[in-house]
TrEMBL record:
Gene Ontology MF terms: flavin adenine dinucleotide binding; monooxygenase activity
This protein's record includes keyword S-adenosyl-L-methionine: no
Lineage: Bacteria, Pseudomonadati, Pseudomonadota, Betaproteobacteria, Rhodocyclales
Protein name: Putative flavoprotein involved in K+ transport
Pfam families tied to this protein: Pyr_redox_3
Organism: Azoarcus indigens
Highest taxon of the lineage: Bacteria
UniProt keyword annotations, A-Z: Oxidoreductase
InterPro entries, per the entry: Auxin_biosynth/cation_transpt, CHP04046_FMN-dependent, FAD/NAD-bd_sf
């Protein structure tokens, strides 16, 4: 493996560390930096290499959805010449690698963590591909995007129809000739749809309940307005949905070609065929829920509500910003389609873009709810010594992004430092440093 930090025999020669960090992406590197600032000994295990997922698990034209100025890893903000732009995947990887080089973390690449259990001594016993270790505190910074979601009924598709998950999509040329159905209208789904459409492929899209956002509005990037309005500082405990906010799909738009919003109705006018949510598959016959009209309307309502909130902020602050015409629908389905035959339509490929689910089976601790999701408060698990970092809405909207991970990492490092100082690893120690 061509690693950024060759394996260190010295790091692996120790059997115990006060802190072990699992995952060497932006979250794991951020907590490593904060632990170093606290003078806390630790080791970071990364099963691949730094920035692996950015380089290897994205399609060729992938870019950030949020502007470069939102890249704010701890003490390492974006310093390029295009803060309003959107980094491509290799540029993102280079940014993360540059951060790693700067902080020089005690990281071992190519080592996966396989099991975590509570030992008889009370310490956490950590089994890795490089051997056995123990720790008092473990930070799980693996991201939670472990298992690509593909519905069970996908097995009903005939073999001559190729199906892949969005994580395996690279470019239109790599797909068989013929028309393509993309299932899912979250950020990945709509961007892959646009990638195929711009390449001249005939595209079909299953539209789910994902919301959409303006890109530019009243003379500014919408994310700049939202930043000024405090949206990114909203904590999950103050969110109207509470912890259910973690289950919401992100708003779709794109950073492609300088960034623009995505109105699926306009793509329909350009020939993209839209359907509602996928309901079932019987051979080459696909069935859909009758929710296309509702899903388009709901996405537009979120879009318009963001514009309304910006309007209110501009008025309240007495700002001078150019007016914009009200939103108008440019297309609507005559009826919600309920079925489609792939063979009759010429569809030769289906791309599943309906997300991922985490896989925490390697953590054998009572730290999860009945659906396998971790339980925590601002990343601190009720299980002593266990922490999570880098997950969406871990604390704020930016927690799962480059924007908010630094603040979350600093908080967890402070909690851990307080617990190490007192010899505690339970909730009482968190209260002492809160």
């Amino acid at each position: 493996m061509n690693t950024l930090f060759p394996q260190s025999t010295q790091l692996l020669s120790r059997a115990h560390y006060p802190v072990i960090v699992v995952g060497g992406g932006q979250a794991g590197l951020s907590i490593s930096h904060c632990l170093q600032q606290q003078g806390i000994e630790h080791i970071v295990f990364e099963k691949n290499r730094v920035a692996h997922s950015w380089r290897n698990d994205r399609w060729d034209t992938f870019c950030l959805v949020t502007p470069n100025w939102q890249c704010r890893l701890p003490d390492f903000p974006y310093q390029g010449d295009d803060p309003q732009g959107f980094m491509l995947k290799d540029q993102i990887a280079e940014y993360v690698e540059a951060f790693a080089r700067k902080i020089a973390p005690p990281i071992v690449e190519g080592v996966g963590v396989q099991h975590v259990v509570r030992g008889k001594s009370g310490r956490l016993e950590v089994t890795t591909s490089a051997g056995q270790f123990s720790t008092d505190h473990i930070v799980v910074a693996t991201g939670g995007y472990d298992i690509p979601i593909v519905p069970a009924y996908a097995a009903s598709l005939p073999a001559h129809i190729k199906q892949i998950h969005s994580v395996d999509y690279r470019n239109p040329q790599a797909l068989p000739e013929g028309e393509v159905l993309v299932v899912g209208s979250g950020q990945s789904g709509v961007q892959i749809m646009e990638d195929l459409h711009l390449a001249g492929r005939k595209v079909h899209l299953c539209v789910g309940p994902a919301p959409r956002s303006p890109r530019m509005y009243r003379g500014r990037e919408a994310t700049e307005w939202l930043m000024d309005m405090g949206y990114y500082e909203l904590t999950v405990d103050r969110h109207p949905l509470g912890e259910k906010a973690r289950e919401k799909t992100n708003h779709y738009m794109t950073g492609r070609d300088g960034g623009h919003e995505i109105d699926l109705r306009k793509f329909a006018l350009e020939g993209v065929k839209l359907y509602g949510s996928m309901a079932d598959i019987h051979g080459s016959r696909l069935e859909f829920l009758p929710d296309l009209t509702q899903n388009l309307d709901d996405a537009d309502e979120v879009y318009v509500s963001i514009r309304r909130d910006i309007d209110k902020y501009i008025a309240a602050q007495g700002l001078d910003a150019p007016e914009e015409a009200p939103f108008e629908k440019v297309w609507a389905p005559a009826a919600d389609p309920l079925a489609l035959d792939c063979d009759a339509a010429g569809i030769t490929t289906i791309i599943w873009a309906i997300g991922f689910r985490p896989d925490y089976r390697w953590i054998e601790l009572p730290a999860f709810d009945g659906r396998g999701n971790p339980k925590y408060t601002r990343g601190v698990s009720p299980v002593p010594g266990l922490y999570f970092l880098g997950l969406p809405w871990l604390h704020t909207w930016g927690s799962g992004r480059f924007l908010g991970v630094a603040e979350d990492a600093a908080h967890l490092a402070g909690v851990i430092a307080g617990r190490l100082a007192t010899g505690e690893s339970g909730p009482a120690a968190e209260a002492a440093v809160a």
